[in-house]
Amino acid sequence: MTPALGSAPAPGPAPGPAPGSAPAFAAARLRVDDLTVGYPTPGGLVRAVDGVSLTVAPGDALVLLGESGSGKSTVARSVLGLPGRTARVTGRIHLDGTDLTALDERALGRVRGRRIGYLPQDPAGALDPLRRIGPQLVEVLLRHRRAANRRAAGPAAAALLARAGLPDPGRIARSRPHELSGGLRQRAALALALCGDPGLLVADEPTTALDALVQAEVLDLLAALRAEQGLALLLVTHDLAVARRVGGTVAVMRAGRIVETGPAGQVLARPAHPFTAALVAARPGAGR
Ligand SMILES: Nc1ncnc2c1ncn2[C@@H]1O[C@H](COP(=O)(O)OP(=O)(O)OP(=O)(O)O)[C@@H](O)[C@H]1O
């Protein structure tokens, strides 16, 4: 991970220079510059994201860490080109040099799924509950032209399930989502997210619904995909233990801004910003 860029500091005591706040990495897979997202409400414009800049290089991870309502998911949804119909968005989002903010909805649709994979918290949001897993994967593989025909797509789907760490891919392919445990379902959702062979995976609280052991397995799988395939990972979490396990760079968000950014071990062990220190103090042990 390149050092991510921090945004303007939040109100409060000056934290000093944030660890790792170096210039943007030229070869960043994802580069977000001065992103601001507002939503009109009867009471005025709510600024969900306020001047966020960050980079994620191939094989690296950036964890957006913060409490509920700090704007993490809005950053993730904006990268996916889905900030919401009423959103007022300014700033730039570049993926491998392409300015996503300049694309129309049709072109963005091609980027989503193919160049950016999405792993939601709840696999039910990704998987059709009525259909078997295998045909769902086959359909997406064909749509993304990752398989020449249905006959070739079957083995490709099985390979994806294996790549997502699923034992006995044949059985999983024949299963419907409700027949699987939560951990297996999340891995199947990951296989679906990988169908387009994306360079970037956006994962929003991907392990929050899982028990600790399965959570660790899924996070380790994401680490393996980064290491082995150069997948870039943008992961949203409110959980310090998750941020610690993912490693890479942590960007701490508060009230729409990044208040501190740097290597996970450093930020969580020796927070420079009082807000990060308070987060760490509230969860003793999670940062270590
Ligand atoms: N479509 C929308 N319309 C109006 N306000 C929105 C919309 N989406 C998000 N917000 C507001 O933006 C702020 C940030 O929300 P966001 O979901 O990004 O936070 P978060 O850090 O991901 O929190 P959580 O973990 O609870 O989802 C909140 O105040 C939220 O109410």
TrEMBL record:
Superkingdom to which the source organism belongs = Bacteria
**Biased composition, class Pro residues, residue ranges:** 10-20
Q: Name one GO molecular function term.
A: ATP binding
**Sequence segments annotated as region (Disordered):** 1-21
Instruction: From the Swiss-Prot or TrEMBL record, state where the protein is found.
Output: Cell membrane
What membrane topology does this protein have?
A: Peripheral membrane protein
This protein's GO cellular component annotations are: plasma membrane
Describe the location of the ABC transporter domain by residue ranges.
Answer: 30-280
> What keywords were assigned to this record?
ATP-binding, Cell membrane, Membrane, Nucleotide-binding, Transport
The protein's matches in InterPro entries, at most eight in alphabetical order, are given as:
AAA+_ATPase (IPR003593), ABC_Ni/Peptide_Import (IPR050388), ABC_transporter-like_ATP-bd (IPR003439), P-loop_NTPase (IPR027417), Sigma_54_int_dom_ATP-bd_1 (IPR025662)
The record's similarity note reads: Belongs to the ABC transporter superfamily.
Protein name in the entry? ABC transporter domain-containing protein
**Species name:** Kitasatospora indigofera
